[in-house]
Q: What sequence folds into this?
């Protein structure tokens, strides 16, 4: 059966859906177009009355399906537009147009959502899940009454969609998008992945083994981190965070240290937690401080450091204490830069948390969704990290250790970045360098590695703005270098 | 016109991929093959079991959508599950231990050929330290912890005799002449952090031993001073060729 190309426009009453549909129909320059309107609003001037059929989302679905079917069978239309009510659930939409006889008659080409910034700021946070789920469901979001520059801050509401910003909604077909959606993963995406893996399997089996091992080591912590971040998202009340932690910053920092010392969070787990803590309203400075000290102070890390360096109190105490100092300084400078140099987090921005789109998702659904969202970056991080470990010439470490200069610190930071060892194991690895690397270099490895390595850099790049990631990375490099030089000068350790 | 539900191809592919991934992980966990890739850390293993259950739950959840048509489906999840399954598959079908590369070119060394001697490697003898006879027996179970204990209390254990089985390694660049480290592959977290670990051993012969060949060594614990730090160094060693011991050593 020949299907009818179908375009869907969603949006709240008064958002400009009818204007957008009129502009859309005119831009396609074809006649014989039909409109199903699930809204009691204006009628599109592009179509005559007999081409417009109005329904209510409260009508009996069987009756609606039957009427729509009849209309579509009575005449051969070249295109169908559906104006979907801003408070109509996606479940109802799919039941009507996908999981009914209409599903075999329609070919849904594109879904648009029409809105404007004033509505997002003033009403969206208070309208429940349906409007937000519609925004996330849409392929393109048309933002009216705004300029391209002002519209950029709203992209995070639906980061994977196309965004068009224009002063007048009627202009959307001729406006250049401010963001174009990434293409969806098609089945043929497996071809390049398969070819790359085939090369690795046959030419570099050790690379595959090492990648798998790093992945198996990281995924449990990623699961733990996303689990905690989902709990924070779903159960931590922004009101309580505001009440107890914003008013008493000292209490917030002490609590962060206590939490870091008691929770077994390593570097892979903390990045998703940073995102959820910040979005739930915890001051970015405190969130970043907690994120930075967790992999340095977690109980397993403290024990493994003691286990590896029982006779080196300067390492044993220097690592956590200097780590706290570094984290405090870096978080004061970088924290406010996480979201555009401001600590304020307006209610609509809290919606940028990826809330579930359907009712039955729940905790495990969100856990699966978040873990799968971060999994590609973890896989890329594992491949890069294992590749560097296998193919990086080992002689350079010995060369820099003999150089007797600040290069030792940079070299050890570079090593920590490349090998991306879990912070729970790095102390024991660092011990093996004791014969060739002076203590300040060992300390640089132990402080820098948990804060920044390939794996968490890839995660940071994909979860936070680039400007923040750059400043944060440079601050950690600079901070670790200064701390290790001071450690060398005060402790009398030659480099 | 009556609506007849059809199979949702996206959901079907996702079910197959997530089931393969969860079953692969389940196989590695139940057979213990996973310990060829990661250390037996109960904390990580518990989380991996949780992950396996989550994957099985995802499979069941996806199976509910097999006849549900949905807009905007993508193969993203299925491809990710498939990729993970592919990465896990070599560990299922070729259960071979990962080996560290040798430090020295093989053509520079000559091996000693003797009858292999059996090792008592898997005896459960605790830390292997017998204070009465001033003797230490190293096994796979105590290799790391006992050497660390000896290193941290070198004054106490100096003069003890030691028996150990390991392979010849020249990774320690501070070794003199044909001295070697009688090493085992130490894994802290996973094969990515694996490193040769063992006791530096004095070897006075003019012909070096073939790196990565397996020997049982008996000797006496002496010390060497390395940059001001006293470290154990095995002297008066007697070596005999031994069978290779499969697997790695882990901290307890």
A:
């Amino acid at each position: 059966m020949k299907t009818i190309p179908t375009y869907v426009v969603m949006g709240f009453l008064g958002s400009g859906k009818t204007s957008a549909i009129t502009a859309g129909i005119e831009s396609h320059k074809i006649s014989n177009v039909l409109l199903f309107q699930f809204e009691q609003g204006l009628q599109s001037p592009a179509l005559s009355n007999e081409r417009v059929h109005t329904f209510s989302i409260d009508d009996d679905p069987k009756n609606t399906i039957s009427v729509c079917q009849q209309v579509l069978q009575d005449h051969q239309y070249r295109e169908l537009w559906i104006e979907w009510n801003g408070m109509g659930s996606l479940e109802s939409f799919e039941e009507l147009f996908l999981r009914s006889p209409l599903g075999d008659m329609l070919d849904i080409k594109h879904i648009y959502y029409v809105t404007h910034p004033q509505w997002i700021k003033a009403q969206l946070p208070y309208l429940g899940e349906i409007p937000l789920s519609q925004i996330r469901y849409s392929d393109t979001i048309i933002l009216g009454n705004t300029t391209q520059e002002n519209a950029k801050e709203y992209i995070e509401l639906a980061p994977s969609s196309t965004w068009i910003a224009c002063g007048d909604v009627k202009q959307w077909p001729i406006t250049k998008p401010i963001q174009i959606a990434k293409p969806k993963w098609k089945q043929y995406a497996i071809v390049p992945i398969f070819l790359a893996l085939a090369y690795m399997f046959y030419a570099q089996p050790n690379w595959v083994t090492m990648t798998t091992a790093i992945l198996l080591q990281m995924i449990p912590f990623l699961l733990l981190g996303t689990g905690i971040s989902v709990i924070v998202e779903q159960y931590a009340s922004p009101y309580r965070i505001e009440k107890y932690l914003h008013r008493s910053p000292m209490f917030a920092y002490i609590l962060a240290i206590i939490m870091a010392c008691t929770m077994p969070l390593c570097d892979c787990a903390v990045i998703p937690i940073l995102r959820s803590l910040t979005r739930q309203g915890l001051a970015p400075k405190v969130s970043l401080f907690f994120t930075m000290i967790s992999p340095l102070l977690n109980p397993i890390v403290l024990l493994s450091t003691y286990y590896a360096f029982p006779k080196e109190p300067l390492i044993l105490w220097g690592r956590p204490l200097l780590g706290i100092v570094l984290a405090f300084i870096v978080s004061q400078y970088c924290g406010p830069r996480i979201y555009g140099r401001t600590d304020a987090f307006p209610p609509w921005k809290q919606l940028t948390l990826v809330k579930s789109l359907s009712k039955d998702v729940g905790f495990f659904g969100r856990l699966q969704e978040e873990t799968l969202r971060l999994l590609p970056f973890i896989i890329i991080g594992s491949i890069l990290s294992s590749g560097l470990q296998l193919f990086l010439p080992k002689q350079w470490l010995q060369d820099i250790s003999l150089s007797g200069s600040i290069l030792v610190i940079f070299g050890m930071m570079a090593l920590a970045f490349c090998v991306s060892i879990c912070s729970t194991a790095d102390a024991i690895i660092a011990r093996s360098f004791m014969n060739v690397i002076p203590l300040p270099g060992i300390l640089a490895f132990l402080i820098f590695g948990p804060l920044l390595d390939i794996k968490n850099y890839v995660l940071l790049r994909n979860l936070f703005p680039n400007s923040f990631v750059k400043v944060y990375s440079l601050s950690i490099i600079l901070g670790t270098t200064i701390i290790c030089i001071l450690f060398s000068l005060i402790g009398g350790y030659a480099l | 016109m009556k609506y007849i539900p059809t199979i949702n191809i996206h959901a079907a592919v996702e079910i197959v991929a997530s089931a393969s991934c969860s079953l692969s992980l389940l196989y590695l966990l139940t057979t213990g093959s996973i310990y060829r890739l990661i250390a037996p850390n109960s904390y990580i293993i518990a989380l991996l079991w949780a992950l396996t259950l989550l994957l099985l739950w995802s499979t069941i959840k996806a199976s509910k959508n097999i006849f549900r048509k949905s807009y905007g489906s993508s193969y993203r999840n299925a491809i990710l599950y498939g990729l993970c399954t592919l990465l896990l598959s070599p560990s299922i079908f070729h259960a071979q231990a990962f080996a560290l590369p040798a430090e020295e070119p093989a053509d520079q060394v000559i091996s000693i050929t003797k009858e292999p001697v059996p090792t008592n490697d898997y005896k459960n003898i605790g830390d292997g330290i017998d204070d009465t006879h001033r003797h230490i027996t190293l096994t796979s179970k105590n290799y790391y912890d006992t050497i660390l204990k000896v290193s941290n209390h070198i004054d106490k254990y100096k003069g003890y005799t030691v028996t150990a089985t390991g392979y010849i390694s020249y990774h320690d660049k501070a070794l003199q002449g044909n001295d070697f480290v009688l090493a085992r592959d130490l894994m802290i977290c996973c094969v990515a952090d694996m490193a040769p670990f063992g006791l530096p051993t004095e070897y006075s012969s003019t012909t070096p031993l073939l790196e990565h060949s397996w020997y049982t060594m008996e000797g006496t614990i002496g010390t060497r001073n390395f940059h001001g730090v006293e470290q154990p160094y095995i002297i008066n060693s007697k070596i005999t060729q031994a069978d290779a011991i499969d697997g790695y050593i882990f901290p307890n």
About this structure: Chain A touches chain B through 68 residues (CB under 8 Å). Residues 227 and 364 of chain A are 9 Å apart (CA to CA). Residues 193-491 of chain A form one domain.
